[in-house]
Design brief:
CATH topology of the largest domain: Aspartate Aminotransferase, domain 2
Bound molecules: pyridoxal-5'-phosphate
Mean pLDDT: 96
CATH superfamily of the largest domain: Type I PLP-dependent aspartate aminotransferase-like (Major domain)
Helix content: 40-55%
CATH class of the largest domain: Alpha Beta
Number of strands: 13
Number of helices: 14
Structural class: alpha/beta
Amino acid sequence: MPEISRRTSSLGTENAFVVLAEVNALVAKGENVISFCIGQPDFVTPDNIREAGIRAIKNGKTGYTGSAGIPELREAVARELGRVRRLEISPDEVVIGAGAKPFIGYTILCVTDYGAGHEVIYPNPGFPIYESQIAAMGAVPVPLHLREDRKFAFDPQELADKISDNTRLLILNTPHNPTGGILTADDLAAIAEIVRAHDQVWVYADEIYSRLVYDGAFATITAIPDMRERTVIADGVSKTWAMTGWRIGYAANRALAPYFTKWVTNTESCAGHINQYAALEAVSGPQVDAEKMRHVFARRRQKIVALLNDVPGFHCLMPGGAFYVWPNVTEACQMTGIENSEELRKRLLYDAGVAVLADIHFGQRVPGEGQHIRFSYAASDEEIERGVERIADFMRKNRR
Ligand SMILES: Cc1ncc(COP(=O)(O)O)c(C=O)c1O
């Protein structure tokens, strides 16, 4: 058989989907599994948005659109991105895509060359697509370790040590998947100070959870005036308006917008026309449902953190945003003689009927930081209570 390229052979994946397949196989066999695996709101898209989608179908919005997106949506997104960040953003800086995810690859393609030794610094643990795309695009992945004693921010000194003349891109993600950590205005000022000394470095600000911040205001590096030009803002409708399946995301950067548009022309041609009208209603229509969902997540955050901290061997920080918690389970592993977080994850799935992800699904374990697992608390109160109770029961039975 002809060969598969090295590029494609080395492509990583999102292990959430792999674990989800395991969960579905168990459920198909009749097992009762409570799942905290998947990073999407457990709500359906609000009614007004679904109605807008139906209207778009009825109005015949079924053809291609311009690759950058329909003008009404680009305008509305420019307003919304600007409102949340207190910036003036113009519609021609904004490109609409099939989710926020494609802009990770497009940005790496725009600012690095294959095999040229260009380095991309990204958070570890982190959204697994960063590392996968960096490697597949022929750049060099440089992980920046997040630390529990900094509430899962990174130490700016580590960034200063890793940034070099070869660095072309720094990926930031706040609020953060998988830890729920946030970068404060002070963290961002320290980062900007370091980046400023390296003219060739772009910044990718993955701000897909920008509207899901629970303590204080959302902080963004784009609020620092001289960082704006070199920073790509990436956001989308998936998380804030429970629209993961509609596949609409967006990125804003004045210099890169024309190149993003070309990439969209070269790949998907345009984001779904009907879906763009639904997204228009999401970003410019009533925000009551989005706010309600945010309140529900904020309440569940308190609940799951309190419950997990009562489980023997679990230690869970209160995350500042998104809908994830990242408890330290080093002691739980020691108490049960389970080798590591991945073995614990499997035991929780097969012995306790609770599905979570392990730290290794989000990159290499950070040396000295112990073992962690990830819960997505986009699950009902009852599932949170029953799920954590099952884990507590597992710990009581398996404690040595
Ligand atoms: C950090 C991060 N960035 C990007 C995405 C992709 O979002 P979208 O559904 O808009 O492609 C996700 C989704 O899980 C995410 O967690």
